[in-house]
Amino acid sequence: MKISIIIPVFNEKSTLPQVLEKIKNIEIEKEIIIIDDYSVDGTKEILKKINDPEIRVIYHSKNKGKGTAIRTAQKYPLKGKIIIIQDADLEYNPKDYLKLIKFIEDGSTEVVYGSRFLYGNNIFTFQNYLGNKFLTWLTNILYRANLTDMETCYKAFHIEVFKKLNIKANRFEFEPEVTAKMLKMKVKILEVPISYWGRGYKHGEKITWKDGFVAIWTLIKYRFIN
To answer: What CATH class has 3-224?
Structure first.
């Protein structure tokens, strides 16, 4: 079953080539859709040199955020039956794709999240660990769910579910928005353990405490509206 891998990119020239190499090494039928969110660090120049039939690159004319990048990809004719979100840093390992798609391929579920907390040996900063735990707890309380990692980047969707998502997020509130909307749609979200190597702000981490407050508001808002 072919997969479409969506990669929002903003100023990741030091890690993007390695991420693409790791993805290319996964032996599965795939297409890679990269949305460059107006990078200014040399990432765009790297992308312009790519000549690969598996890779499509879309350029934003200004910086709009991760959520907008995913909305841009959603408008394009995706060829895969399974959609996977991939960050352009090295925090997540594409080797875990096979775990994510297994249960969608066999019809067990339509959505799979890669949980960073089911292994118990992944690397987090203390601030990010607490923030992720709190947001997941709030999600479970508001939506009567039983998730361990709502904020994970690794979300795999059957294409039909992905098409139904009316995404409005511009930035990192994409994660709580799509989770809230799927839980309200009664979509079964299955979690599988993945590996994770978190980076701090010195190494390019972009999510801040302000994004945490936006995530809280997003969870509360979509509990009561669509």
So the answer is: alpha beta
Segments making up each domain of the chain, as ranges: 3-224
Instruction: Say how far residue 106 (Cα) sits from the centre of its chain.
Output: 22
CB 98, CB 171: distance < 8 Å: no
Percentages helix, strand, coil for the chain (3-state, rounded to 5) are 40, 20, 40
Q: Residue 210: what pLDDT?
A: 85
pTM: 0.93
Residues whose CB falls within 8 Å of the CB of residue 156, separated by 6 or more in sequence, listed in order? 3, 82, 83, 84, 97, 100, 101, 104, 111, 112, 113, 114
Nearest-10 crossing angle of helices 209-224, 174-184: 20
Q: Would you state the pLDDT for residue 201?
A: 47
In the structure encoding, which two tokens stand for residue 214, read together?
């936006």
Nearest to 187 by CA among 196, 197, 179, 177: 179
Using an 8 Å Cβ cutoff, are 113 and 193 in contact?
no
Rounded distance between C-alpha atoms, residue 102 and residue 84, angstroms: 13
Measure the CA–CA gap between 63 and 69, rounded to whole angstroms.
9
10 Å Cβ neighbour count for 77? 5
Separation between Cα atoms, residue 3 and residue 142, nearest integer Å: 32
Yes or no: say if 37 and 65 are a contact pair by the CB < 8 Å rule: yes
Encoded tokens for 165: 């998502």
